[in-house]
Design a protein that fits this description.
The chain is mainly alpha-helical. It has nine helices and three strands. The termini are far apart.
Length: 173
């Protein structure tokens, strides 16, 4: 199964929580928690340092550098992901990555392709699919296209059409 076989609406919040929580590989679980919670690209994951993750009130604030090669981006643009401390299934594996690291240490000091292989092996879908899942789940929780634009560091709201996969039940109220 790849992300071509499934679309984001086929994976509920509970399904992805169970997949990440039940992952037997602790490193893959931690990487998946970080990529899902931040909506970061794999190439952005190996730029996140311990200092980029801070507890603020009831949230964990994660700052990621936005790396875009094909699109025009402001230099040194950052995305700020906010994860509720209530989402312990995401918080615990991320904090595991932080253990024993200095503030300027990179949390995942490996090449992009190694991260990609670890996630593909454990989750059987393209790691970029976590980005679509996060966008879909945030949209289901009430985030608008403008909220998603700021969360993901997009220059417009247009990518939300591509990343968010809603079904008819999501549109009922």
């Amino acid at each position: 199964m790849t992300n071509l076989d499934k679309s984001p609406q086929d994976y509920s919040y509970e399904t992805i929580r169970d997949k990440i929580t039940n992952c037997p590989n602790p490193l893959a679980q931690s990487i998946a928690s970080l990529v899902y919670s931040t909506g970061a690209r794999v190439s952005e994951l190996n730029k996140i340092k311990k200092v980029n993750i801070q507890e603020q009130g009831n949230y964990l604030r994660i700052t990621c550098k936005v790396l875009k090669k094909k699109y025009k981006t402001k230099k040194n643009q950052e995305r700020i992901a906010v994860v509720s401390l209530d989402e312990t299934w995401l918080i615990v594996p991320i904090k595991r990555l932080m253990e024993g690291k200095n503030d300027d240490d990179i949390l995942i000091p490996m090449y992009r392709m190694k991260i990609y292989r670890i996630l593909m092996k454990e989750f059987k879908f393209n790691p970029h699919f976590f980005r679509s899942l996060r966008a879909t789940h945030l949209s289901q929780r009430g985030y608008t296209a403008h909220h998603l634009k700021h969360f993901f560091g997009w220059s417009s709201v247009a990518p939300s059409d591509y990343y968010v996969g809603l079904n008819t039940e999501d549109l009922e109220y």
